[in-house]
Specification:
six-stranded parallel beta sheet, Rossmann fold, 46% helix, single chain, alpha/beta
Length: 228
């Protein structure tokens, strides 16, 4: 069993999408609803437009391209499809089982909590508010906070600065080896790999987990690993 001999941390930072909830499934549900609204193509086909990374992963210009490819674009139909997408995506969101227990337990142990995400801040706040999780977090660092996406160090350093902490005083929980675990380890933070949520489209499937990384096979493992 993995444990820490001591936990000198003052804060725990979290990735958001696929670490606190299943965002891949939410995007899939949004794509199914939008494709049905368009009346052409499939949800999987539309998802392939979002994951190509021509635009930001959540940019609905991807939906516009999909509609143009099917000769179904009009301004009115576009906004109808966007509405169907966003409604289905939000409705399908739910915290992973055990996440609220983890956040409550960490707060009760005296940790400050923060989110570091590649989503825009307004989108992150909307999702966390929708799920009743926003009040757990002292700080939310989104893509627009620094203008950099992970694995750049700037988002992590920004969160530490906002909390007034050094890297060794914080642990970080994330589901991507490349975009979460590797950069925080290089900064000197303790890394917790949220293996249960690793459904990353943009990471090499055989990317190994680095040594000296704590592994959470389920959300509740986070509490076992980090709570004093």
């Amino acid at each position: 069993m993995q444990t820490l001999l001591s936990t000198p941390f003052k804060a725990v930072l979290f990735d958001m999408d696929n670490t606190l909830f299943d965002f891949v499934d939410a995007m899939k549900k949004g794509c199914v609803a939008a494709a049905a609204s368009v009346g052409e193509g499939t949800g999987d086909e539309l998802l392939s437009y979002y994951v190509r990374w021509k635009y930001h992963f959540e940019d609905h210009t991807n939906l516009q391209d999909f509609m143009l490819a099917h000769n179904r674009f009009s301004v009115e139909k576009y906004f109808e499809a966007v509405g169907a997408f966003d409604e289905a995506k939000m409705k399908s969101l739910a915290p992973y089982p055990g996440i609220e227990e983890v956040l409550t337990g960490l707060r009760s142990s005296g940790y400050r909590l923060a989110v570091v995400t590649d989503a825009f801040s307004y989108a992150a706040e909307a999702r966390l508010e929708h799920l009743g999780l926003k009040s757990y977090f002292d700080e939310i660092v989104g893509y627009d906070t620094t203008g950099y996406k992970k694995p750049h160090h700037a988002p992590f350093e920004c969160a530490l600065d906002l909390l007034g902490l050094s890297p060794h005083e914080a642990a970080y929980v994330g589901d991507s080896i490349r975009r979460d675990i590797e950069p925080v380890r290089s900064l000197g933070m303790t890394a917790v790999y949220a293996k249960y949520g690793d459904r990353n489209f943009f990471d090499h499937p055989s990317l190994p987990c680095p040594q000296k990384v704590l592994i959470a096979d389920t959300p509740v493992d986070i509490l076992r690993l980090l709570r004093p």
